[in-house]
Amino acid sequence: MRRLMGRRLSSLIAGAGRRRFSFLAQPAVAPAEAGAILHKDAKVVPRIPRFDYTPPPYDGPRAEEILRKRSEFLSPSLFHLYRKPLNIVNGRMQYLFDEDGRRYLDAFGGIATVCCGHCHPDVIEAIINQTKRLQHSTIFYLNHAIADFAEALASKMPGDLKVVFFTNSGTEANELALMIARLYTGCHDIISLRNSYHGNAAGTMGATAQCNWKFNVIQSGVHHALNPDPYRGVFGADGEKYARDVKEIIDFGTSGQIAGFISESIQGVGGIVELAPGYMSAVYKIIRNVGGLCIADEVQAGFARTGSHFWGFETHGVVPDIVTMAKGIGNGIPIGAVITTPKIAQVLTQRSYFNTFGGNPACTAGGHAVLKVIDKENLQQNALVVGSYLKNRLKALQDKHEIIGDVRGEGLMLGVELVTDRHLKTPAKAEILHVMEEMKGMGVLVGKGGFYGNVFRITPPLCFTKEDSDFFVDVMDIAMSKL
């Protein structure tokens, strides 16, 4: 492998002009470009793409002091990536900057949250302008920012999905969706998928199906179906066979009627798992035949991230009864939403229902700006083009490195699963940590997930470029060559 790496580096040097690489042998590396330094075990490292922005000097607390306060005053359940935690103090588009001004390529996007780019000027301007006029009142008064954003969101939805309930997060959105389904149908039973993640409150924790994210508290009325995982699933990519399990759960585990079915179109926390072809359409038919509602969790896959479509569920050719969203809806603003039909929405009038901060003017003004930026800057098309390019480069890397068991996902929601044995699909849990550390050292930040923690979650801002993709893959290549 090391000899192969040597030949790879030689070819890179020979073709530097063609590949647009800047190498460390060249002098005058600016402080903000410190990612382009001589790596301890490699002769040369590709230089981070040029970017016309220099962050203001940072004179705040250092990482060690922040970590001390965090350990003393914040929840002990909080965790961080990397042996030496990063103190991120500035962000601009697809890049983040640490306390020393070092620039990193952000391939995680705040867990698929930053869609327009860090501190996008249009979004920031919309928030500031609204905050100057009115930061908060209550939904008991009228405000155009809330209504305008709801109208804009509804225009992005198919069919009769046009009634919006604003929340503060994806967990809240999914909690509300589950309650709506139960109220509307008069049934309690919900079906979700194994390996899914829908939040960490009472109802959503029940729908979540990974022990990593579940506490031993009462979680009633949820049945977890076989996960239609083309890579690790028992039926491979045969969606119809997985769908039969849902029918059997209804027949043998419920009264024969259920409240609904909730599913991500691509499982995010579960390791960027695509659902087997034909599964969603088959299951939606089964659910509706017994009077249940179909809930699409678009918290991570929504807002143009899949590239080919604005919503992840559209890639499966289905139209849900309820859609939940958060993360990309606000580019980092704490906001979420549930969208359903006028008929289904009526169930919440049975009692008084409202959310104090749901539809906050500043948040909805920012969210509306996000929609405008996605359209104005053609970010959906960029996610498709750049995502396809990046996925192809990652597949080529898979041919080179045996540790890569699978490359999957759509648009700029991609996963790379590492295994120590391709036949047995043994999770490479320790190896992925080593690769992440090496990549950070070369200026790339990326997330990880999956039940075994062995999957790279690649969910960058949608302004990611092909040049960024080249830098990302070549850094990963070098990091993997050190295993």
TrEMBL record:
Cellular-component GO terms for this entry: mitochondrion
Q: Which InterPro entries match?
A: Aminotrans_3 (IPR005814), Aminotrans_3_PPA_site (IPR049704), PyrdxlP-dep_Trfase (IPR015424), PyrdxlP-dep_Trfase_major (IPR015421), PyrdxlP-dep_Trfase_small (IPR015422)
Highest taxon above the source species: Eukaryota
Q: Provide this UniProt record's keywords sorted from A to Z.
A: Aminotransferase, Pyridoxal phosphate, Transferase
Cofactor or coenzyme needed: pyridoxal 5'-phosphate
Q: Which Gene3D superfamilies match?
A: Aspartate Aminotransferase, domain 1, Type I PLP-dependent aspartate aminotransferase-like (Major domain)
Can you tell me which family this protein belongs to? Belongs to the class-III pyridoxal-phosphate-dependent aminotransferase family.
Q: Which PANTHER family match?
A: ALANINE--GLYOXYLATE AMINOTRANSFERASE 2-LIKE, PTHR45688
Q: What is this protein called?
A: alanine--glyoxylate transaminase
From what organism does this protein derive? Apostasia shenzhenica
Lineage here is: Eukaryota, Viridiplantae, Streptophyta, Embryophyta, Tracheophyta
